[in-house]
Amino acid sequence: MTQQPVATSNKLDAAVLKVAGVVVLGAIMSILDVTVVSVAIPTFQSEFDASYARVAWTMTGYTLALATVIPLSGWAADRFGTKRLYMVALALFTIGSGLCATADSIGELIAWRVVQGLGGGMLMPLGMTIMTRAAGPHRIGRLMAVLGIPMLLGPIGGPILGGWLIDTASWHWIFLINLPIGVVALIYAQLALPKDAPEPSESFDFLGMLMLSPGLALFLYGVSSLPEAGTVTDTEVWLPMLVGAVLVVSFVLYSFRPRHPLLDLRLFRNRNLTLAAVTLFVFIIAFMGAGLLFPSYFLQIRGESTLTAGLLMAPQGIGAMLTMPIAGMLADRVPVGRTVPFALVLIAAGFFTFTQLGTDTPYLLLCGSLFVMGLGMGGTMMPIMTSALKTLSAAEVARGSTLVNILQQIGGSVGAAVMSVILTSELNGSRVIPGVTDPSTGAPVTEAQLAIGVQQQPELAQQLPVPPSLIERGLDFAANSFATTFWVAFALVLLTFVPAAFLPRRREPSHLLDGEAGEEQPCTPVAVH
């Protein structure tokens, strides 16, 4: 890559801040959009008359698209230039946002979310490349503080913004709000970013990409079809799962052949990277999968508005905001094997509360538990990723960063699919109410479905000839369904302690040193989507 000239001063001058502004705008769009959608899932369920497992694909499809383009962005940046590609990513994300707002069915919404993800997945890695070239490695710490603002505020502001937009306008606006931001970011990028100097790049593993992403999507689609099909023997379940599994296994076997594979699985020979990657993967499945359920509980079981649900989620983001900077500083001084287990204890303690959910669990207890979980999350993510990359050689860092990034997105996809399937399967076990059918589909209605419907639309209780005790029983069943799903997530968090126990407990020399300055090279950060 052609290096831009960098200043020797440690201060961030106006030219660097101007470039950082473009990257921050892109980060705000991509990070906010994930957290905004989390509070909209129950709205999509009622709007499109779809199951939780089906609607969760608005997140699963998005994260799979992110995983697809992360390795592509490095190759394409060299081949076509960072400015040009960053503007394409901004345009793709903005167009995808506009198309999401036009969706008439859940299938259309999922498709347009994939388009959004293809753009959003390139914004963060490209943004980091642009900022590193503009400022130089010696000022990357200060730039990360700037970029850290949307990373920290996204989990707090996203659910609140999404809730407010849905309550005061409609769900369409959680996507339409990206249009003016995207247009401003495109104009800003054209004016602020330096001209491109594309050059020949190493070959890209298109065959690997064509096996991994479709393989994961097919396998998870088969898993997601299980609640509606009711049995693994249904063709819609076992066929995509089988084809997907064959593609993923083929990808793993094939990955050791190319010189520049999509994912360099040879890096797993490094013990530290392997332990950190496994810890991160299991943790992300539990945390990201269960994270989608928190707003749904407040909306569907407690009958709160989407804005209130967003506000109730804020303590988790505040907790993470407090510990993430501290964990970042400690990661360079204290071995992760000594800090991460304590952070995981906080997460497990917070999770346990949600395994005991009822219809009237005190909000003070729930918000306090979310805050404790946030404290733990802030002390878990960055240290684990630092450990994964720290002992790699300089030549391996880019491939290691790509590997960790993709594993995180795959973990998020698996978590969203698995937790939504478990919740849907649990809710499907509720008793059918004799003589009551869904007016739009004619399908029989269960006690849990009716109870959730009444919580979101109280007028239904007056329209249907059912006793209040039946609605209470359905609500209890639905709350227990959420609690059962959280038990699975809690078990996965406990499982995370196994690989975490083997993380380095002694300081090890970092190989990520700049040959001339003797300074540590920055690792590409991973945004939690």
UniProtKB/TrEMBL annotation:
Domain Major facilitator superfamily (MFS) profile: 19-508
Domain of life: Bacteria
Membrane topology recorded in Swiss-Prot or TrEMBL: Multi-pass membrane protein
Membrane-spanning ranges: 12-32, 52-73, 85-104, 110-131, 143-166, 172-194, 206-225, 237-254, 275-294, 306-327, 339-357, 363-382, 482-503
Major place of residence: membrane
UniProt keywords, alphabetically: Cell membrane, Membrane, Transmembrane, Transmembrane helix, Transport
PROSITE patterns assigned: MFS (PS50850)
The name this protein goes by in its record: DHA2 family efflux MFS transporter permease subunit
